[in-house]
Write a structure and sequence with these properties.
430 residues; mainly alpha; two-stranded antiparallel ribbon; two-stranded antiparallel sheet; 69% helix; 2% strand
C-alpha cells in the first residue's frame, strides 16, 4: 500500500509537470505565431524532414533519456530563420520521427506513449523558441558579425538552449528517480555539454552551407552529422558492453560465495554515490564502479569451504582469505582494458593507519579511488547478514564509519561518504 501511494504521488508530480510544460509551450507558440511569419517554406520543409530523420536515430543513455544529433539542425534554424520557424522545425522532428525499433524489439510510431510525446514536443518548442528569441533580440541590438551569423548572439542563444534543455530533463529525471534537480543536473548533464557544443558547431557549418548552396548544401553536411551520431553510438554501446561484461564476472564471483550475493553490486552503488558526492569526473566514477564490481574477484581462488565457513576462522584460514586481494589484482592485470583498476582492487583492504593488508600502506600511499572503495565495501559488510554476525542498523553502521575516520578510513572524505551512503542505502532498501 505504501509503495502504491508513492507511485501515485510520483505520477501526480509527473503529469502535473508535463501539463505545465505543455501549457507553457502552447502559450509560447501562440505568441510566436502572432509575432513572426513563415517566409521560407523550402527551408521549413527540408529542415523538418531531416530533423525527423535525425530524431529517429536516438542514442539511449543509461537510466533514462536519449540524445539526438538533430540539435545541429535546430541550431542552424535559429541562426537562419526566426523563432517561429525554429520552434516548428524542432517540434516537427520530435513529433514525427520515423517508426523505429528499440533495443527490446518494440516498434515506436509518433513518439508514443502520449505523455512522452507531450513532454518532448513541449520542451523542444520552449528550447528552440526561447533560444531563437534571444538570438533574434541580441542580433538586432548588437548587429555584429557575418551576414546572418552573430557570434555574440549565437553564444548566448546556445547557452540558453543548453540550460533550458538540461533543466527540463533534470526535473523529469528528478521526479522519476527521486533525486534532487541539482544533483541530477550536475552528475548527468554537465559532462554532456562539451559534446552538445561540438554538435552546435556543425550546426553553424550547416547554416553557412545552406546560405551558400541552398538545400543541397544541407544534404552535403547532413551525412557527416549522421556519421558523428554513429561514432557516439559506438561509444555508448561499447560502454554498455563493458559494464555488462563486468556484471557477468560479478555473478561468477558470487556463485563461489553465496553469503555475499549482491554484495559487489551494492558496493558499486555505494562507491559510485560517494564519488559523485565528491564531484569526481565521470571517467573517475566509471573507474571506481569497475573496481567495486570486481573487488572480490580474487575469491575465485579461495577454497569454498573457507569462504562458507560459519564458525570463526582459524588464523591460517584468515591469512588465506586475505590473499584474495592480491589474487584479484593479478587476474585483472592480465586484462588490458581492466589493468587500470588492478591497484585499487589489490589495496581495498588497506587502512590509513597502516594496519591493513596486503602491503600495510598508510594514508599518503592510498589512492582516493581505493579509499572510496574501502568505505563502500566496509559499509556493506556492516549492514548485511554474515555467517558470523547479524547486520548493523543504518545509523550504527554510519557511526562506525565516522568512528574509524583517520584509522581505517580517509578522514577527508568520511563526511561526504556518510551523506552518500545514507541516501543510497535507503534507496536500495526501498
Amino acid at each position: 500500500m505504501i509503495r502504491r501511494r508513492k507511485n501515485n504521488s510520483q505520477n501526480i508530480k509527473l503529469y502535473t509537470y508535463i501539463s505545465l510544460l505543455t501549457i507553457a509551450a502552447l502559450s509560447l507558440m501562440v505568441y510566436l505565431v502572432n509575432e513572426y511569419t513563415i517566409s521560407n517554406y523550402s527551408l521549413l520543409i527540408a529542415f523538418s524532414l531531416l530533423s525527423a530523420i535525425a530524431e529517429t536515430f536516438l542514442i539511449p543513455l543509461p537510466k533514462i533519456g536519449a540524445v539526438s544529433v538533430s540539435f545541429a539542425l535546430s541550431f542552424s534554424a535559429i541562426l537562419l530563420t526566426n523563432p517561429l520557424i525554429a520552434a516548428k522545425i524542432t517540434a516537427f522532428g520530435v513529433a514525427f520521427r520515423f517508426p523505429y525499433v528499440d533495443g527490446r524489439g518494440r516498434v515506436h510510431i509518433l513518439n508514443s506513449p502520449i505523455y512522452k510525446t507531450l513532454f518532448n514536443i513541449s520542451q523542444s518548442i520552449l528550447n528552440a523558441g526561447i533560444a531563437g528569441k534571444v538570438y533574434f533580440l541580441l542580433n538586432n541590438t548588437y548587429p555584429y558579425g557575418f551576414d546572418f551569423f552573430n557570434p555574440l548572439a549565437a553564444s548566448v542563444s546556445l547557452l540558453v538552449y543548453l540550460l533550458l534543455n538540461t533543466f527540463f530533463m533534470a526535473v523529469l529525471m528528478a521526479i522519476l528517480l527521486k533525486e534532487s534537480v541539482i544533483y541530477i543536473w550536475k552528475h548527468n548533464f554537465f559532462s554532456m555539454m562539451i559534446n552538445v557544443v561540438l554538435v552546435s558547431s556543425l550546426g553553424i557549418v550547416i547554416a553557412f552551407s545552406y546560405d551558400s548552396y541552398g538545400v543541397g548544401g544541407i544534404l552535403l553536411f547532413f551525412i557527416p552529422l549522421m556519421l558523428a551520431r554513429y561514432t557516439f553510438k559506438l561509444y555508448i554501446d561499447m560502454r554498455k558492453t563493458y559494464f555488462e561484461t563486468l556484471n557477468v564476472l560479478v555473478r561468477a564471483i558470487e556463485a563461489n560465495d553465496p553469503y555475499t550475493s549482491g554484495h559487489s553490486l551494492r558496493v558499486s552503488a555505494y562507491a559510485e554515490a560517494i564519488a559523485k558526492q565528491l564531484s569526481l569526473p565521470q571517467n573517475k566514477i566509471d573507474l571506481i564502479k569497475s573496481a567495486a564490481l570486481l573487488h572480490d574477484i580474487g575469491k575465485i581462488g579461495i577454497d569454498k569451504n573457507i569462504l562458507n565457513k560459519k564458525e570463526k576462522l582459524e588464523k591460517e584460514e584468515f591469512e588465506m582469505i586475505k590473499n584474495h586481494a592480491e589474487i584479484g589484482a593479478t587476474i585483472i592485470s592480465d586484462l588490458s582494458y581492466l589493468a587500470n583498476i588492478s591497484d585499487i582492487i589489490k589495496h581495498h583492504h588497506e587502512k590509513v593507519d597502516g594496519s591493513g593488508y596486503p602491503d600495510g600502506l598508510t594514508y599518503e600511499d592510498i589512492s582516493l579511488e581505493t579509499s572510496i572503495l574501502t568505505i563502500a565495501d566496509s559499509f556493506d559488510a556492516m549492514t548485511t547478514d554474515r555467517p558470523y554476525r547479524c547486520p548493523l542498523k543504518l545509523e550504527d553502521a554510519l557511526q562506525e564509519v565516522k568512528n574509524n575516520a583517520g584509522t581505517q578510513f580517509n578522514p577527508h572524505i568520511v563526511d561526504d561518504a556518510i551523506i552518500a551512503l545514507k541516501k543510497t542505502y535507503i534507496k536500495l532498501v526501498e
